[in-house]
Design brief:
Elements (H helix, E strand, L loop, with lengths): L6 H9 L6 H12 L7 H14 L3 E5 L5 H10 L7 E6 L2 H13 L6 E5 L2 H4 L7 E6 L6 H9 L2 E10 L18 H16 L3 E6 L5 E6 L1
Parallel strand pairs: 1-2, 1-4, 2-3, 4-5
Antiparallel strand pairs: 5-7, 6-7
Helix pairs in contact: 3-4
The structure holds S-adenosyl-L-homocysteine and magnesium ion.
The site of magnesium ion has 5 residues, from loops.
Length: 217
């Protein structure tokens, strides 16, 4: 598991979160059984709160996987017949195809647009602005994704970056395994960047696998 918190704390926090609906719950269970890297339940709950508080209607997401978080966000934005919109990026053909199937199953093909291919290139094709961004893909490219998202945020927009504590490795050298050294260095530089740059206000929450929340001033 990639939990950074004590297991009993995570289990307790999760026990407080109400299931959204059966269909979504079945989808989550299925993803968990397959050990797909979908958002932690408590991270989802936090983003739900952000969506409701800011009345977000548009989200840009890097890292679709099979579409769980896109579908979850879209449902939380409600207003499904209106302008609620998620634009998301997936480079794996297998996951892309599965995401398209899942989005159809939930009848959200009008709301969710999936770009197939590397997000670094595809982000440049997007000419709209968003209320929220969710970065949840290759950890070594977070800064590239972030800078491209910043250009596409509405004023007062928030960028959320998932897995930024990476199983605790980012906060402690003792936990770093050799083959993750580059990833750790990149994520540490990334957190320094979004924390120190005058254009942003960032807080890092030890939620799930670590979630950075950045307000673009
Ligand atoms: N947000 C999803 C989980 C995403 S897992 C959820 O919570 O349901 C991360 C995904 O990002 C993987 O499927 C991986 O294939 C994809 N990915 C990684 N690097 C990418 C890149 N550079 N461009 C597009 N997709 C990428
Ligand atoms: Mg994640």
């Amino acid at each position: 598991m990639d939990n950074i918190n004590r297991e009993y704390i995570d289990i307790y926090i999760n026990s407080l979160i109400k299931n959204e609906n059966e269909e979504l719950e079945r989808f989550r269970k299925n993803c968990e059984e397959r050990q797909l890297p979908i958002i932690h339940r408590e991270v989802g709950q936090f983003i739900k709160l952000m969506i409701k508080q800011s009345n977000a209607k548009s989200i840009i997401e890097i890292g679709t996987n099979v579409g769980y978080s896109s579908i979850f966000f879209t449902q939380m934005m409600e207003n499904l017949n209106g302008e609620s919109r998620v634009v998301t990026f997936e480079r794996s053909e297998k996951f892309y195809e599965e995401a398209i199937k899942n989005i159809k199953h939930f009848n959200l093909e009008k709301n969710i647009e999936v770009y197939y291919g590397d997000a670094v290139e595809n982000l440049d094709k997007v000419n709209e602005t968003f209320d929220l961004a969710f970065i949840d893909a290759a950890k070594s490219y977070y800064k590239v994704f972030f800078d491209k998202c910043v250009l596409r945020m509405k004023s007062g927009g928030i960028i959320l970056s998932d897995n930024v504590l990476y199983q605790g490795m980012i906060a402690s050298d003792d936990l770093v395994v050799k083959r993750k050294k580059t990833l750790v260095r990149n994520l540490r530089e990334y957190l320094q960047y979004i924390s120190e740059d005058e254009r942003f206000i960032t807080t890092v929450l030890p939620l799930g696998d670590g979630l950075a929340v950045t307000l673009i001033k």
